[in-house]
Each structure stands twice: as structure tokens, then as C-alpha cells.
Amino acid sequence: MASIIESGWTYLITNFSDFQLACLGSFLLHESVFFLSGLPFIYLERAGWLNKYKIQMKNNTNEAQNKCITRLLLYHFCVNLPVMIASYPVFRFMGMRSSLPLPSWKVMSTQIIFYFIVEDFIFYWGHRILHTKWLYKHVHSVHHEYATPFGLTSEYAHPAEILFLGFATIFGPAITGPHLITLWLWMVVRVLETVEAHCGYHFPWSPSNFLPLYGGSDFHDYHHRLIYTKSGNYSSTFVYMDRLFGTDSGYRKLKALKSEEEAMFKEN
Fold first, then answer.
1. CB atoms within 10 A of CB 261
2. 0.85 cut: is pTM over it?
3. CA 146 to CA 74: how far, in whole Å?
4. Choosing a second label site near 247 at 20 to 30 A (CA), which of 6, 48, 126, 202?
């Protein structure tokens, strides 16, 4: 397996420059993973399939979904791509490389765990700040246009928010100067996580059923349903910050109440 990856990587670095791989390659990878993982949830909602796993019974209109896709393409090409190009010199200065040898799985996994810790901390405070009255009204309310989220709404946001919270995602890699393949792996994992958190479905195989302190779709869906000043659940991937500061208390009370109701139903 390692030799196959190395052969593929050799082909990439032989035929494309570092700039092309780091900027255009990263952009194409992001778009592919994001839309391939997010689009199926639109079709699930439209077809009514797997509705027993849907968190909210309300559906988005086709027009609302199409609006989301159109805006996303605009934001990605006009905000995300320029940011990737502009940040390339910073990553290069901090030591990012694409050459062989590839980093070991131990190095990559250690760095990605560090990125999750850093991202969760920065995202929590940035997200919580965005829920203050002025910033919510003028910036963050764009993301909350969809009270019933679906996968693609994960990146539907005001351009200022894309830059503001996007900083949380790139800060860890920016200060460690990882190998490009590590940066790509982090991007893939992070995109899949945020799409899952916004998908609107809670499946038996959802990661939150198996990973301690993982937020996931049920946790974040609660955040979208409530009024901005009282929502809580500000965390990105893992929920330790909400737990530490008590901003998930409403959610935990609701979960406890549902558990009691389910227990009483089983007894009867």
C-alpha cells in the first residue's frame, strides 16, 4: 500500500509544481470531497429516504438547496481559492514540503490530533463571538439561514465568517509546516467531519455513537434549531470546550429528558 501511495505521489511531484499542488491541487481535492460527501444528503431529503434517521422532519425547499449550491460555488472560487493562493508563501516559509520521503503514519496522525485540539479551541471562541448580537445579525446569520441543515450548509456562510473561522482550520498546519500530504489528509478529515455535523441525519453508524466527546450531527443540529443568543453547542468537532464552560447544558438536559421518556416507553 505504501509503495502505491509513494508511486502516485512521485507522479504528482514530477508533473506538477509545489504551487500547483498546494493551491490548485488542494482546491480541487476540497471541492471533490465536499460536494461528493454533501450532495447525497440533498437527494436523501428530496426522495424521503431514511427519514427515520432524520433529526428534524422539516425539509428544505428545492429552491433553498439550489441557492445554497450556487452561493457555495461563488464563495469557493471568490474566497477559498484566493485564500489558498495568498497563504501559500506562509506555508512554504513555515516549512511545508511536498518532496519524498513521505511522513510516517505516526507523524501524520500526531500532527492531525494536534490540529483538532487547536482547531476546536479557536473555533469554539470564534463561534461563540459570532453569536454576539451585532456579529450574529451582520455576519453569522447567513449560516443560520438554514435552521434545518443539510451537508452542504456546513460551508454556507458570510465571506467574513469563512475567513474568521477558516483561520481555526489552517492555524495548526500553518505553525507546524507539515508535509503537503498531511495537509491534504487533514483537509479531507475536517471536510467530512463538518459535512457529517450538518447532514441532518443521526444514523446508528454516526461517529458520535462511538467516539467520546465527538459532537456530530445531533449535537450541531440542536445549535441550528434555537435562537442565536441561547443556542450553545459552539464546538467544532469535539465538545470538551462546551462541556468545560457549560454552554451545552440545554442540549444535555434535552438528551437526558429524551432518555427518560424512552425508558418509560420501554417499561410500558
1. 10
2. yes
3. 18
4. 202
